[in-house]
Each structure stands twice: as structure tokens, then as C-alpha cells.
Amino acid sequence: MTEHIDINQINSNFRYRFDYLSKFLNFTSNDIAMLNKFAIIILSHIPVIVDTVYRKLLSFDIIKQYFLIRNDSFEDPLTKKIYILKRILTQIEWNDTFLQNLSRIGKIHTNKAGSSSINVDYIHICVLFGFLEHILIDIFYGQLKILIIKINMEYL
Ligand code: HEM
Hints:
Blueprint: H1 7-12, H2 14-25, H3 29-42, H4 46-58, H5 61-64, H6 77-90, H7 96-108, H8 122-154
Helix pairs in contact: 3-6, 4-6
């Protein structure tokens, strides 16, 4: 069966957009609960994650140029990114206020946020998601190895 998805709603209604993405990815309340559990492992690594991401982004001139743009509400970017990563991991209810905040952050990276717009080409966002995924998997793999070593030591 083919479900109709309204592109106008996708572009104008963040709840509708979130519902569509959730259906596509099969992202449910179980995933939110899982993120909240992962937070226990990830939270202490966030400053290092953000630092690693910045080093990567600033190592290419095509990306560095975006960070030379200073918008009206420019604040310490590291603090803001650490804050949003913590929020995503620890948020229990993905209510409209939370979604609207995510949507606002996304919008900043396009040309649709007025004077706050930085208009980042999607290719950079896409590779950054891939890079982040690698960092997170490495952290989990590291934790898993420590756990296995601990279990093995208990049985020695
Ligand atoms: C995984 C994707 C990304 C996430 C989750 C993310 C997150 C954020 C957040 C939370 C902010 C602060 C928004 C605010 O003012 O409240 C921000 C701003 C910004 N982002 Fe991103 N971002 C991403 C990708 C990128 C990429 C790929 C670039 C550059 C090519 C970039 C460049 C910037 C710039 C220049 C700002 C404004 C200054 C700053 O806060 O650093 N972002 N981003």
C-alpha cells in the first residue's frame, strides 16, 4: 500500500515532518528510551565528541568558511553544540517544544532562518552525520570491549 505524504505539510509543519521521518526510519518511543539509556555511556564523552567534530570541520577550507560568518545571536558554538547533544540524549518526551527547537537549529543551517541563516550545503551535513555515527559506534565498541574484559576477568 502506498501512503500519501504531503510535501507542503512536510515543509511547513514540523510535527507532520517528524511523524513522516519517524515512520520512514521506524523511530519509536523505544528508540527514545534507548537514547536515554545510551546517555549514561555517551554524556561524559560529549566534550571530546564536539571537539573532534570541530577539528574535522575546520580541517577543510570549504567548511571553515561557514564558521567565519557571525550571525546576530552568535554565542559560544561549543557550548551550544554540547547542550543540544545532551538534550537529544536525555529528552524523555519529544514534545512540540523540543521538536520546534530541533527544527529551528536545522533551519539555521539553511537560508530560511533570516539573519541567523548560515546556509550550509547539505553535502557537509550528510558527511558529518556519517562521521558522528563512526564516533558513536567507536565509543560503544570501546565500552563493549571493556565490559567483555571485565566479565572474562571475573571468571578467571
Ligand atoms: C550533524 C549535523 C549538525 C548539527 C546537529 C549541528 C548543530 C548545531 C547547533 C546546535 C548550532 C547552534 C544553533 C543555535 O544558534 O542555537 C549550530 C550552529 C552552527 N552550525 Fe551546525 N550542526 C550540524 C552541522 C553543521 C555543519 C556540517 C556545519 C558547517 C559546514 C555547521 C556549521 C554551523 C555554524 C557555522 C553554526 C553557527 C555558529 C555555531 O554555533 O557554530 N553545522 N549547529
